[in-house]
Amino acid sequence: MFLNELTIKQCHDGLMKKDFSSVELTRACLHQIKKQDDKIHSFVLITEKEALEQAKKVDDKIAQNETIKILEGIPAGIKDLLCTKGIRTTACSKILENFIPPYDCTVIKKLKENGFVILGKQNCDEFAMGSSTENSAFGSTKNPYDLERTAGGSSGGSAASVVANECIYSIGTDTGGSIRQPAAFCGMVGLKPTYGRVSRFGITAYASSLEQAGPIIKTVEDAAIVLEAIAGNDKLDSTTSFKNVPNYSANLNKDIKGIKIGLPREFFEQGLDLKIKESIYKALKVFENLGAKIEEINLPMTKYAIASYYIIAKAEASANLARYDGIRYGNSNVKSQNLSDVYFETKTNGFGDEVKRSIMMGTYALSSGYYDAYYLKATKIRTLIKQEYIKAFEKYDAIICPVSPILPFKIGEKIENPLAMYLIDAFTVPINLAGVPSLTVPCGKIKIKEKAKEYIVSDGESLPTAFQIIGKHFDEETILRIGNAYEKTQNKIK
To answer: Is 154 a catalytic residue?
Structure first.
């Protein structure tokens, strides 16, 4: 096994034993990026100098026999939505293509306190608006399983880089599935924490009441490790919780005998690829063998989730993106002395089609005469969805359902049909509306009819699939334990 193929835990153990150095580990990842990222396009910026400098500092500590933290010296990639002091942060938009933040977002600050090594900034849909990374102003990210297919979105670069072993782990954001769906498309683990578990300060805003940062990683154990580092209250984000951050790794290996799992009928009906359904039902058999109790449940408000989500998300996007006027924020090469022309030309040239569509939809939903009919009604539906999940969790410890109704699709296949693209999020957006945590766990690969012409991983004949484990508010501990129990059985089978 090459160094860049290791998990976080394996990297830490190897560093502590002095089997290899942080510089060697970092160089292995950088070599992989140089070798293949021109095909995948996971990164939009490589920070080689900063990465090697930080790795050297960690090696110096190890040489002095100092104890290092578990993430110390381990190279990671960061979605280009998180502000990084002195390092360009564009949100993959032309309007911010030269923006260099004067501060770190809280997640980056916490990671720095844990000694992480930053390899660079990763590609995503512009302002996180998309499900395929095709909306990036800097080009699409390809799926390493099949370079003709999407890696998912909006954190497509973050997911593709991990499965391609260009970094040990990455940090993405999830507004309506943007961690979980690309993790599923790339056969990786992805964790969307409870809303308020991780600070949003310094993360370029799309829909503030929905989004959370979280890891895309190789194992459930690594998810627990990263969450411990980035979670917690932040005085700079009033929506963060004062609840203590548990030691998520401590109870990871406890058995799940007696755990009650709900299986929502609404997620397994028309529209779900039958091969995905079959793979998830095989996984459910594993849970039953581990002693979990599985029962079908009803979540009838699910059918309203897409409509509610997209009204709320677009309304918040409209408000958040108003600041990019070419004067206070955003690039502007406009020569006009007329203020309205400056605004118009800056936004016309700076924003892509999906962002413009979002602003128009959101502004319409918030406008006089339509606010009550659209936005207010959507927020009421959101409350009902949240209440439905709270009620379900009175009886069940977790809920399991698909992540995506379809397998990774070909680049260009759906981009001209926004409605078809929005429907891909049908199984992920209810979780963001409810504010509960969810963990994507891979559950095998599905054979496809044609062999991929070009691929980086697998055999070019199969695509990954996954399920998600949804938990109670602030009960990431339980879903991590359930996911880890399943993952261990798969490792034994291998």
So the answer is: yes
